[in-house]
From TrEMBL:
GO MF: ATP binding; glycine-tRNA ligase activity
Keyword hit for Ligase: yes
GO cellular component: cytoplasm
Keywords: Aminoacyl-tRNA synthetase, ATP-binding, Ligase, Nucleotide-binding, Protein biosynthesis
The name this protein goes by in its record: glycine--tRNA ligase
EC number per UniProt: 6.1.1.14
Tree of life domain: Bacteria
Length: 441
């Protein structure tokens, strides 16, 4: 069930605490664009690092590329994007507003002014621009609508340079651009987005086994970034709704505040892409098995994950409100692995040099475990806790006069506060270091 109030609270928190800002805000904004702030940048990088670790770096069969955003336009002709990368567009004859036809409850009246809607037509979503000084058709290029194109066109280079054995994959994180008719739902549907994609090349008869392995991997990744299993649902996409290159697709859907929508996709692309590029470029893209001497065009499994939709799913599932010390509290129950700050160190009073000095010593010890240890001495300790709760910081460590030995039995101990419960315990610095290490492992 849609919860617009929750969505508004999440959007407010992300701006207030430096996760996501409206794009070009001081000029009135630009629809479908958002900027990541200080906390959002770190969260995004943590998600991408975890994906790279699980999908590429901890495997012996994966290789990386970072392909150019601007590519020869013939690539998109061969892949079918020039002809078929489109959505149904419909325009109001009265107010001239444009909508996606499949997003309208009724095709009779305009939802804005109740004017008459025209006939639906296909609208290609690729952004066009020109390369070089000329601005004629010969200079037309496109901002890539997906990162997969750069992977397929580098397939031969990877094979020739590192000589991988099947099965193997090529992974890439990068920007993609889609001229959405109606961008909506915060960072869910954007005109400029980030993708984490793998093209995994297999023998034709092995695609089902590989498909199942990557399906399990995507569920593991959901758990790793803190997305609850009961909020992720698999949808077997029927033949009529699949992309032109796909023989089987599973959409991983998530229960967003605005409803259940697509989070990620897993597609069996057959050998469509390599065959299409081989024909269009007149380049041999077959694979030669050195053992059997068999030559064939590999088939492809594609796990495709949108970074922005992943972050929105993380924020949606981590958002919490509760009562603590008689007050309503908001916090993000982020996994320590992806939380922007792993802990916060604070002197009880900022105007006491001895407390500040000791707090900096403790922070230096914790930074040996992880560099993302926040420092906060602004305002009273309660306000500091509330700020860190909204950022999603798992632990807050306070240095007080007992730390300095006001109570001899508590000397060199600190207060460790737990984000999710608000509970506090007295620990030595070495115990806090161990607690942090355990949480990050």
């Amino acid at each position: 069930m849609a919860d617009q109030n929750l969505m508004e609270k999440i959007i407010s928190l992300t701006k207030r605490r430096g996760f996501v800002f409206p794009g070009s805000e001081i000029y009135g904004g630009l629809a479908g664009t958002y900027d990541y702030g200080p906390m959002g940048v770190i969260l995004k990088e943590n998600v991408e690092r975890l994906w790279l670790s699980m999908f590429r770096d901890n495997r012996d069969d994966m290789f990386g590329v970072d392909a150019a955003i601007l590519m020869n336009p013939k690539i998109w002709e061969a892949s079918g994007h020039v002809a078929g990368f489109s959505d149904p567009l419909i325009e109001c004859e009265k107010c001239k507003r444009r909508f996606r036809a499949d997003h309208l409850e009724s095709l009779g009246k305009c939802p804005e002014c109740e004017g008459k809607l025209g006939d639906a037509r296909q609208f290609n979503m690729m952004f066009k621009t020109h390369a070089g000084a000329a601005e004629d058709d010969s200079a037309t290029v496109y901002l890539r609508p997906e990162t997969a194109g750069g992977i397929f066109t580098n397939y031969k280079n990877v094979v020739d340079s590192v000589h991988p054995k099947l099965p193997f994959g090529i992974a890439q994180i990068g920007k993609a651009f889609r001229n959405e008719i109606a961008p909506r739902d915060f960072i869910f549907r954007l005109r400029e987005l980030s993708q984490m994609e793998v093209e995994y090349f297999v023998k034709p008869d092995d695609w089902e086994k590989a498909f199942e392995e990557w399906r399990k991997m995507m569920h593991l990744f959901a758990g790793a970034v803190g997305i609850p299993e009961n909020m992720v649902h698999e949808l077997e996409v029927p033949d009529t709704d699949r992309a032109h290159y796909s023989k089987r697709t599973i959409d991983f859907e998530f229960d967003y505040p605005f409803g259940r929508k697509e989070l990620w996709g897993l597609a069996y692309r057959t050998n469509f892409d390599l065959s299409a590029h081989a024909n269009a470029s007149n380049t041999e893209l077959a694979y030669l098995d050195e053992e059997t001497k068999e030559k064939f065009t590999p088939h492809v499994i594609e796990p495709s994950l949108g970074v922005d939709r992943t972050i929105l799913a993380i924020l949606s599932s981590a958002y919490r409100e509760d009562e603590l010390a008689g007050e309503t509290r908001t916090y993000l129950a982020l996994s320590p692995k992806i939380a922007p700050m792993k802990a916060m160190v604070s002197p009880l009073l900022r105007n006491k040099p001895e407390l500040v000095e000791k707090a900096r010593e403790v922070r230096a010890e914790l930074k040996k475990v992880h560099p993302a240890i926040a420092w906060d001495d602004n305002g009273n300790i309660g306000k500091r806790y509330r700020r860190q709760d909204e950022i999603g910081t798992p632990f807050c460590i306070t240095i007080d006069f007992d730390t300095l030995g006001e109570k001899p039995e508590l000397k060199d101990t600190v207060t460790l506060r737990h984000r999710d419960t608000g509970e506090q315990e007295r620990l030595t610095v070495s115990q806090v270091v161990e607690r942090l290490q355990t949480a990050l492992e």
